[in-house]
Amino acid sequence: MSEEDLNLLGQLDYSVLQQCMHCGMCLPTCPTYTETLQEKSSPRGRISMMRSIADGQTEVTKNFAEEMYFCLGCLACQTACPAGVDYATLFENARGEIERTNVLKSTKRDLIRRWTLGWLFMKLSRLRKLGKFLRFYQRSGLESIVRRSKLLTILPKILQDLEPLTPRISPYFTSDYHSQTSNPPNPQFRVALVSGCIQDISFAETNADTIEVLRANGCEVILPSEQGCCGSLHAHNGELGLARGLARKNIDSFDPERLDAVIVNSGGCGSHLAHYDRLLKDDVNYAKRAKIWSGKIRDVHEYLVEIGFRNPTVGCGFEAVTYHESCHLKHGQGVSDAPRNVLKSIPDLNFVELHESDWCCGSAGIYNITQPEMSMSLLDRKMGNIKKTGVEVIATGNPGCAVQLQFGVEREGESFLVLHPVQLLAAAYRAEIMEQ
């Protein structure tokens, strides 16, 4: 980790640490506190520990580290806070300090982090090579053979339990679709799409539908070939130096000054991308451009509403839908009504509001891998609410949520489809053409 990341909690503007009034308004919104009823697992409890470390009263300990990684980082507390506490900044810097002090250091953990955060997610070309291998594994029949052969039983139980969470690989990548299709002849807007990491290899169909919908609403859609991972996984796991490097690469690749908007259809990525200005505020070469970049970031639903998207004239082929809110889309970006507006615009599609729609599903980046017990408890709660809606489709605007919810559907033997709201809008637009 670079020198600029040293003593992160101590280097924070102290007013950020002082904002918390310890009023407790965050407590009912915090999934980990609600499950455990332990003060240390609440936002204000975690902030108290951070402040103590920043003041030099206590050291970073293994217990503190484990508590900070027990936090989902869902930011529901940030929405609920009457004092405007910037929990996202505190959360990322606390994890950065944990990694700096190496209190969780182990050979196994270091190897995993070095391979994933330090190598695999640093270049999309590496992810695509992995995607091609998994695509062959899943589509050739090897996956079925391995599952029937009981070979998976030799793995540790945690890996056996998580194997069904492996996302399905799309038949193509986003660039394949983009290169074979064309922009409208007289576009009104010029935008660029963030294709994402997992979004690109496992949800390329969602990206394709996003491009289709934007073009249908007068947008020229650019797909920068040199773009990389947004860096949210790195920032949320204490690797702020790597996150800054990825941010600089994306700003250079997109050239945001020449765009009307940078479009994101992944809630988790969008929340991080929108805060490049905060991440690079001390970078003399990129601070100004990062501020322009953050001003251009738009969630796809948000942008469609902003430009006055065209309501479809026919339905999308489904009768009823509910909407699960991505934590970082609502709490990180403040986008909540726009996805509902998109869904409600589709004729003959009954929108059923989901109870606790903004309660975390337990995905939270890699939380379902690092904290499987709590993750599955949250998924049980979410699936219980979904089953009460009686709908066909669960719509959500984040790939991590989609994978988690699909796992919940299959685990419980349900028949819900999990789709992105833009996929339903794209289906309605295509149905219009079929009717002509």
- Gyration radius (Cα, Å) is 21 Å
The number of helical elements comes to 26
- Mean pLDDT comes to 93
Overall strand count? 8
Strand content: 5-15%
Q: What level of helicity do the residues show? A: 40-55%
3D architecture notes:
The strands form two sheets. A four-stranded parallel sheet has the order 2-1-3-4. The protein has a four-stranded parallel sheet with strand order 6-5-7-8, with helices on both faces. The termini are far apart. Helix 25 links the parallel strand 7 (393-396) and strand 8. Helix content is 53%, strand content 7%. Mean pLDDT is 93; it is low at 1-5. The protein has helices spanning 8-11, 14-18, 31-36, 43-54, 62-70, 76-80, 87-101, 107-116, 124-139, 142-148, 157-162, 174-180, 198-202, 204-216, 232-236, 240-254, 267-273, 276-279, 287-296, 300-306, 327-332, 337-344, 367-370, 372-387, 399-411, 421-435, and strands at 189-193, 219-222, 261-264, 297-299, 320-324, 350-351, 393-396, 417-419. It contains 26 helices and eight strands. With 436 residues, the chain is α/β, with parallel strands linked by helices.
Short description:
The protein has helices spanning 8-11, 14-18, 31-36, 43-54, 62-70, 76-80, 87-101, 107-116, 124-139, 142-148, 157-162, 174-180, 198-202, 204-216, 232-236, 240-254, 267-273, 276-279, 287-296, 300-306, 327-332, 337-344, 367-370, 372-387, 399-411, 421-435, and strands at residues 189-193, 219-222, 261-264, 297-299, 320-324, 350-351, 393-396, 417-419. It has 436 residues and is an alpha/beta fold.
